[in-house]
């Protein structure tokens, strides 16, 4: 009888132990083999929901715990994107570092173009108004130009070119506004010194018609012996290159007036 009781207790303990073991095994797809994928998926969901810190915690856990994971590159970008999403001066610094590290660690990765694009975007988001410091604008231009040159077949090319043009226009606006200030106070040489370099540095400047017109006006009013002669070609370029412009009719009138005293110039 005593032996029977002992055997019953042993079997009972074994049954409890087996039950406990069974309950500790993850169910569904959350096995140890794909725990890194689970972290990646949850991090991506948090990122899509703009839960930046939560997303970063999942991605960082993956990076710290699974050195051989196939998701490490994407997790690295996820960390960078989470910092960019926070949109603070401090988070931008961390985002830049993460994207640069990604390009250093994974230069041939299929998402290297995305990392380069995002580098430009970090600077783009920090660009200041034309009248203020343009360091971030210049950095954005440099990163987007690198993108255009390095990834000609990227699906992000159109967006990169759009951002590059906007950044260049911001930098051009800074020069244009200074030139206009000089023009308003009748310092014509100062205006000429801003408008001419702007045309040379950025032939695609979006307000080039205005630069043509006001550069010609500054030359015309400069009272130098060759001022009117130099002004005429810029009025003519405006008329030749622009079908629509608020300066078009004024330029045509100036051309007619100047041609009475200045020989026609080639375009």
Task: Describe how the helices and strands are arranged.
Elements: H1 2-24, H2 35-48, H3 52-65, H4 72-86, H5 89-105, H6 112-124, H7 135-150, H8 157-184, H9 188-201, H10 208-221, H11 227-241, H12 248-258
Helix pairs in contact: 2-3, 2-4, 3-4, 4-5, 5-6, 6-7, 7-8, 8-9, 9-10, 10-11, 11-12
Structure, described:
The chain has 267 residues and is mainly α. It is 73% helix and 0% strand. The chain has helices at residues 2-24, 35-48, 52-65, 72-86, 89-105, 112-124, 135-150, 157-184, 188-201, 208-221, 227-241, 248-258. It is elongated, with a radius of gyration of 32 Å. Mean pLDDT is 88; it is low at 1-30.
Which key features would you list for this structure?
267 residues, mainly alpha, 73% helix, disordered N terminus
Determine the structural class based on helices, strands and strand pairing: mainly alpha
User: How many strand units?
Assistant: 0
Summarize the biggest pleated sheet: none
Low-confidence stretches: 1-30
Share of helical residues: over 70%
β-sheet strand percentage? under 5%
From the alpha-carbon coordinates, what is the Rg to the nearest angstrom?
Answer: 32 Å
The run of helices and strands is HHHHHHHHHHHH
State the gist of this model:
With 267 residues, this protein is mainly α.
């Amino acid at each position: 009888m005593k032996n029977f009781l002992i055997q019953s207790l042993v079997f009972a303990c074994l049954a409890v132990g087996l039950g406990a073991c069974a309950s500790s095994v993850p169910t569904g797809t959350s096995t140890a083999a794909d725990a890194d994928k689970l972290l990646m998926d949850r991090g991506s969901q948090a990122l899509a929901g703009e839960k930046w810190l939560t997303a970063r915690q999942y991605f960082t856990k993956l990076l710290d715990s699974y050195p051989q994971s196939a998701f490490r590159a994407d997790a690295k970008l996820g960390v960078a994107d989470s910092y960019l999403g926070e949109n603070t001066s401090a988070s931008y610094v961390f985002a830049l570092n993460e994207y640069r590290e990604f390009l250093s660690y994974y230069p041939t990765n299929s998402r290297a173009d995305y990392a380069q694009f995002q580098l430009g975007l970090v600077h783009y988001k920090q660009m200041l108004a034309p009248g203020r410091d343009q360091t971030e604008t210049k950095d954005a231009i440099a990163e987007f130009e690198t993108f255009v040159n390095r990834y000609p077949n990227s699906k992000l090319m159109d967006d990169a070119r759009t951002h590059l043009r906007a950044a260049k226009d911001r930098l051009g606006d800074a020069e244009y506004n200074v030139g206009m200030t000089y023009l308003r106070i009748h310092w014509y040489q100062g205006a000429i010194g801003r408008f001419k370099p702007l045309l040379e540095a950025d032939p695609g400047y979006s307000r080039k018609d205005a630069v043509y017109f006001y550069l010609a006006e500054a030359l015309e009013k400069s009272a130098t012996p060759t001022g009117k002669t130099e002004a005429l070609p810029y009025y003519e370029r405006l008329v030749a290159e622009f079908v629509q412009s608020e300066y078009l009719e004024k330029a045509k009138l100036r051309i007619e007036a100047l041609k009475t005293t200045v020989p026609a110039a080639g375009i």
